Protein 1
Amino acid sequence: MLDIKDLTVRYNSMGRVTDAVNGISLSVEKGSFTGLVGESGSGKSTLMMALLGLLPPRTEVKGKILFNGTDILRMSDREIRDMRWKEIALVPQGAQNSFTPVMKIKSHISEVLCVHLKMPGDEAERETARLLSEVGLDPGIKERYPHELSGGQKQRASIALALACSPSLLLADEPTTALDVIVQAEILELLSNLRKTKGLSILLVTHDLPLAATVCDRLVVMKDGIIAETGTPSEIVRDPKHPHTKDLVREMFGQRDKK
Amino acid sequence: MMDRKVVETSKVTVSFRSKRGDIHKAVNDISLSLSRGETLAVVGGSGSGKTSLLRALIGLVRPNAGHVILYGKYLSQLGKDGLAEVRQRCGYVQQDPYGAIPPGLTALEAVCEPAVIAGVRTGREEIRERAVSLLAELGLKGERILGSRAAGLSGGQRQRVQIARALMLSPGILLCDEPTSMQDASTRGEVIEVLAKHVADGTAMIFVTHDLVLAGRAAERIMVMKEGFLCEEGPSDKILNAPDDPYTIKLINSVPSFGKITA
């Protein structure tokens, strides 16, 4: 469903040029759970922003991003706006802080339903309750303000928000940072279940290789703007090929060389 | 013989009162004791009282019951100056590296600052050299990084600046609150090694984290807390390999690991 071909993204900022993504090609199959793993600065967030057409102006972009056959990079703003949320939705990094503090949870979700799907207000409110229960929250939470929710509840609510327009591809950018391990496991289980029940494709962006390896069916390891390695989690963990992946795997097994 | 014990608590309880007047007990009856060269990890989910316990150990919150003895002194009996004196011998790496570094200082100045405040009498050059070497140990080198103010550093870099700052006065105890939460996999191991080196040199360390596996790498003993209460405590190997408490088992099972790969 998603076919990225030879994508290069170069930022020009105050005379400084940064090659954030350097000629990567990658495809994501329908219904797959792909883990995009890389450290800070590896280009994973840039790649995600490119998929949503959200790169800053004056960014040099080359290559193709084919989504169901259409090149996102050549879409008009209007076409991209129609695609965003309905086809590709984002669970942003730091979702806990992505809600407006003065708006109730229901206003966040209803707004999306009204704007993107032209849903009337009362129907949007019913749909909001349904979405919240779909992600395992008590629908009554819609009457609460963001600060009245725990970190895990906010993360679930942000997933409900991303699901509002029934997208086919969900981009989850570090969806479990700032959550404790038990809540983290619950959120990952929720994503796995949604993928099965709704036939969603999920692209999980994380710096945590073991986390991605336990939930995803395919891993893409990025390093310095290029793809270091792709494979199933067991292939990558048993027999990492790229030196960077080898380091990560060794580090995770706690057998890192002392030198 | 020099007393190697750094901190001791007996049945410490910390409560907070909410705006509505409800009393919330963040820490309940926690007793611990730590000497130089020893490491203890405090592990639990969000809201288990880990950070409140750490703050009580250096008098940033006052226990409602029980007492804390730091370097042989009852914290409750110390005045402002006495408290400042014992605190200077503690390195505290707080959870949020964004709020921990004075925004106007460069990385290098921030690491030198504790020595300046403490009125260390060695020359400025020596203070600077120590700061540079601590930062280098933690992988922060070069004019560009050392001369950056906090805003120009990544979360992971700030966290390492903060650790160097905590180590500046060679504290007898390091209190680390999720000190590697913003590190990439490759730097996380390096930070743990640096901390271990200072422990080997005679510093005590309390390492707070919600990751039991990481706790096992960083500390020889683990204390598991849930909702302010002690669940269980013991040598790391025992807690990780033969836990007794159902909550500990849940925590272990929640940590992603290569052993759980299905695809």
Note: The mean pLDDT of chain A is 91.
Protein 2
Amino acid sequence: MSLSTADVQKVARLARLAMNNTEIEAARAQLSGIFELIAEMQAVNTIGIEPMSHAQDLSQRLREDIVTETNQRELFQSIAPQVEAGLYLVPQVIE
Amino acid sequence: MLNLTLTQLGAALRARQISSVELTQSYLDRIATHNPVYNAYITVDAKTSLAQAAMADQRLATGDAQALTGIPIAQKDIFCAKGWRTTCGSKMLGDFIAPYDAHVVEQFNKAGAINLGKTNMDEFAMGSSNETSYFGPVRNPWNQNAVPGGSSGGAAAAVAARLCAAATGTDTGGSIRQPAALCGITGIKPTYGTVSRYGMIAFASSLDQAGPMARSAEDCALMLNVMTGFDERDSTSLQREKEDYTRDLNKPLSGLRIGLPREFFAEGLSSDVGARVQEAIAEYRKLGATIVGISLPNTKLAVPVYYVLAPAEASSNLSRFDGVRYGYRADEYTDLADMYEKSRSQGFGEEVKRRIMIGTYVLSHGYYDAYYLQAQKIRRLIAQDFTDAFKQCDVIMGPTSPSTAFNLGDKGDDPVQMYLSDIYTIAVNLAGLPGMSVPCGFGDNSLPVGLQIIGNYFDEARMLNAAHQYQLATDWHTRCPQGF
């Protein structure tokens, strides 16, 4: 399968990756090769087969809906790129 | 001291023949000598390791020691360790100081083991050669020009070069077994859900599993005893009785039925690797095992299925890296979207971006059924192949990797060729089964060959038994690369 430049640009945007034209072209060639490999799947008859998401086919455990975490705001914010007054700072979103 | 087993080291420590501080210092000295060339460690913190060793010595003095108390263990840099830089091999986490311990790290701390340092790895565990690490490639102790395998390449090289007593690794598609094979050491990926993933930086959550990498099966069993156990902080952690993985080591192998999948000995396998594996099988016959021919008909589909499922899960897991709460943020940006895009583009390396894009594509609108759902269905077929095979045999054996270690740079430009080097290991992750690699000789280029042993669910003790008996009869696992 061959991907178009537009396909790759769209995927890069969805994945929040900034890529210039050279990078897009390089990615297009490599992704096309990988999707050729992946295409081997398409010929397999899987009618009636249940998808498998977990090896043990377990359901998720439930627990009481109570707070189990302690407040570690200062510790966690000490490794943040930019904080002020206990808040994470990002560029202004609303004018 | 360097060639003692963990059992022997533990006994020497408890008998006070050597202190943990002395032992830790001797490993730190070796790391200082060899790491500039081999690059097996990303972070070493001698002060912290020695302080931990001093505490272990106190514990040893009071007779409060466990099997691994005082023993220096290298932690793959995918495990968060409180106060330690934890990079996952990425620029994205280049300055990240973990605010908490992974469950695995916590378990080793409780056991009184020493964190000797954080080992190098492919970025976010995505790679089979350690060449995708932001911190530079690791070199194979058997030949500096060869790769150590990946993604746990630093751990494998550190164990092979005697730069730690044992190490932790993680395995999503072969990342413990393949580097273990390429560096001539023993490593085991347990049944999915056996070791908690809490604090282990996520790649593909339905496949990621931690395990030990060491110089023998016996050492791996002792490490597993510490690493396994239920942890409510991992939603896929299994609630099971605690096991002693050493319990069956000394059982004789008579009557063991070994399945040889014909698909593992077909086109694509190097003849030297095939020959060493056959010799190992012959040794098992001598030990009383019987050989059964089996088939795993969907083997060829494992790589395509994996390269849908793993990138899909990775693209979701790695969406958390946005430059807001932790990790890398670009220096310059115009608005919030630009900050996300620049931080991610500059913080992630090429292979990681490639996999995020594959994952984003297969999960995008209109493609989900054709790719993700189809892959999950074939995943069940692959798992069913193993279930059928285990009706005829107790363990499955074959090569771990199609060839011995390739040279640095050899597969760098062709992701598909790199992906195919995990052809024999990936299906085991998809099925959630335990798998291990055991050294079984050397190839034409004098580099190590690994024998893969695959077990049924929760059958680690039997696999370790099979590996240990082989290691009693052979000495491949005791070989040490020159210069160490």
Note: Residues 37 and 139 of chain B are 7 Å apart (CA to CA).
Protein 3
Amino acid sequence: MAAALSGLWAGLLAGALLSLLSIAAFKLWPLPIHIPLWGAAFPLVGALIGAIACAWKRPSTTEIARWVDHKQALQERLSTALEVLPAANDWAALVLTDAAAHASRVDPRKLVPFRLTTAAKIAAIILLAAAMLGFVPEQRSELQKRRQADAENIRETGRRISELSRRLVEKRPPTVQSTQVAMETAMDLGKGLERATLTRMDAMREISSAAEKIRARAKTLADDPALKQMRQAARSAGGEVSSREALQKQIETLKNQLGTESSFEQIDKLRSKLARMEQTARASTDGGLGAGANQEIAAGLSELARQAQALGLNLPELDAAIEALAAQQTDRFLQKLEAAMSELEKLSEMSKTLQALQQQAARIGRDLAEQLKNGQAESARETLSKLARQLQDSRLSPDQLGKVLEEVQKAIPASENYGRVSDHLKKAASEMQCGKSGEAAASLQAAAKELESLMQQFGDAETLMATLDALNQASMCIGAGQCWQPGRRPGAGNGSRPGAGVGTWADATQQWDAPPGEMVDNSGFQRPDMDPRSADAERQEGAPLSPTKIRGQFSQGGQMPSISLKGVGIKGQSTVGYEQAAEAAQSEADSALSQEKVPRSYRESVKNYFDEIRN
Amino acid sequence: MSTEERIRLFRETYSAIRTEISKVFVGHNEIVEGTLIALLAGGHVLLEGVPGLGKTLLVRTLGEVLDLSFSRVQFTPDLMPADILGTNIVMEAPGGRREFEFQRGPIFAHLVLADEINRATPKTQSALLEAMQEHQVTAGGKLRRLDEPFFVLATQNPIDQEGTYPLPEAQLDRFFFKLLVGYPSASELGQVLNRTTAGVLAEVKKVLPGERLLELMKLVREVPVASHVQDYAVRLVLATHPGTQTAAPKASKYLRFGSSPRGGQSILLAAKVRALLEGRFNASYEDIQAAAHPALRHRLILNFEAEAEGITTDHIIDQVLNDVPTEAAAMVGA
């Protein structure tokens, strides 16, 4: 045990030394983080190894006897007894008896008292030094720091790509094997980026390679005309296309919450007036609420309350504000006025949403033909199901059958882009003409199923596009030395300008989900929420036109994307002209572009650069 | 007689000798003990001290306590070897014939007191060499054995005293112990004055005949010594050898010559005697350490640097004891 303790302290000392060295080395040189982490474990491992090694090497009986003699001050009685024992003479007997008498008084527990040896004390000091060294900042060059930050960004980006892919798959499981494979590619890419230590270039190359595979699959889906129409319909609706019934249900709910039939414009007008009134009231309050101003505001608020009542809006906070004003309770008045403003804003938002839903509902085709034409697959599927149910109804009159037949026949041309839906509809029409309502219903159900399948494929396409968009953004973020997170594009933070892209004044929240290499037809899109509010609109409302001077502001922009390229510095005088050199460089750039040496995100920039220097 | 009884007799005899000596000789317990240890080990003793400290008294008292023949030689510069060993003189035989007859010198005694040995010339001092080592003398062309036991107890003044001749190294090496006699303490001095000025002379008894002393000497040599204890004595001696790998740093720096093997023998024998006196049946590291100073101090030859710096051999021995660890201490890293 004494040997084990001795080994333990010696091992601890050795481990502490190694630990100190590893931490010091990490502080001085750009070593991987696992070196100091391992170093932290060295003392424990060293102590264990030392204790085991020393305990393993069992001392001989003679050594033990000499050690006990020393520890218990037995004046070499035990060790001498062991040596003279074989002699078996009088002296041996005497020495043995004497040694036995003294050995019987030895307390084994006191033989190995636990005490800190010099090695242990030195080890403790070294460990303390190592711990303190941990707080000393690392000596790193800017290049090393950037590489380290890049590696961390890439690792985090990989983790997020992996997480996003997993969530997308969970949310909408792929229906086709190829989509599944494409999504697994994205997940593998995320894991690869997370595990490996890559440079910026390598990471972008990896992302580009994975994106190519996903893009190929997305392109296959994007070429499907039915999916094109569905996508256009979805884009027009500003999101997922719901069925008419679902929309109607949402509209009814909102109407109940709103409690009025008033339009968004009317409520918004009221809100604007209240806002101006609030501004006036605050201005008056700051300078002391005079009797004249008080009267004027009271009159204005009463008029507003009357208009709100006329519109069927219930604004209790506004009434409370009028009461507070009458009672000369300025603070309460302002508080209630602010609450009324908030109340009205909420109603305005609900009204706006209601208006958007109503417009969306209005865009849903009235019959199957229009729904198919507009790409409203969900509505079309429901219509088909409804028609099938009608056909299955035994009480269906010939007139009703005729109407169903007419609707189906009308929808056949619009269903040409929907794969086998057209065939099913044609079959259903012919069956209805033959009076086979049951078979026709089955055909319509089959058409509904086909539409459902197409919707699933559309879901696949959406998942792939989302993944592709995420990969592109991630690539740009890594190129800009930033960590990507879903919804973030390289550049400044949310909402600040300049937004996404280089040198553009785009909105930071804008989305670009067009399939690669395809023009988007956005004619006919209606976005009331994005409608500009011109000065004319204000003028029509009778608002006073007060000149407003807004001071321009300069703000720090986001980090420009940058990329480090290795090159060879050439010294000496140039022997060729500038133009020749530029042309040669451009040809090399073209070659690099064609050979995929330049990441996709940078190709355009590289091309433009060389075009510029040539001109 | 069993070994245990012999050991008991050893301790009783020692105790009796101490008691008798203490009747005459006051204090200096270490000197008395050292002298007796040397005698029991069969070695000669060199007592060094300024005049008047009782060196001669101690030896003379010892001669009275031991039932042995005793002779005293006062060493002077004109003392000749023949004055110690003896010489052939012409004697007239009963028939009127004259013949040479060897007249034995004072060396032919069991206990020889060589008083102020360093006052004689080296030639005369060297007359003791053969007697001390081989217990025989060669005189008048004949080899003559000395009676056993044979001890030389020499006293000397410090060599920086006037009219002294330093003992040759070979002579010094033959002494088992060199004991330094210091000044007595106040209480001891008081006792000395009481005893020497009251007009009462203490009488001592003879307690140890020569035969029994020889038996005790034989017993000493039977005391077992563990190999690692003996090894420690060896390492101590080797550590005094300057310029060798085993030398202690101070030894290399300040010594011209280290201890001879006789130093090791002295240490080990003294350790055995001390073990018996301490009531043990085996020699220990402590015994070795206790014997180191008296056994080695006269065997180490200082160099000029040590002399200049006032370093003594006792300093060197202290350092050697400090530098050479016992095996057990080295084993536990203490």
Note: The longest strand of chain B covers residues 86-92.
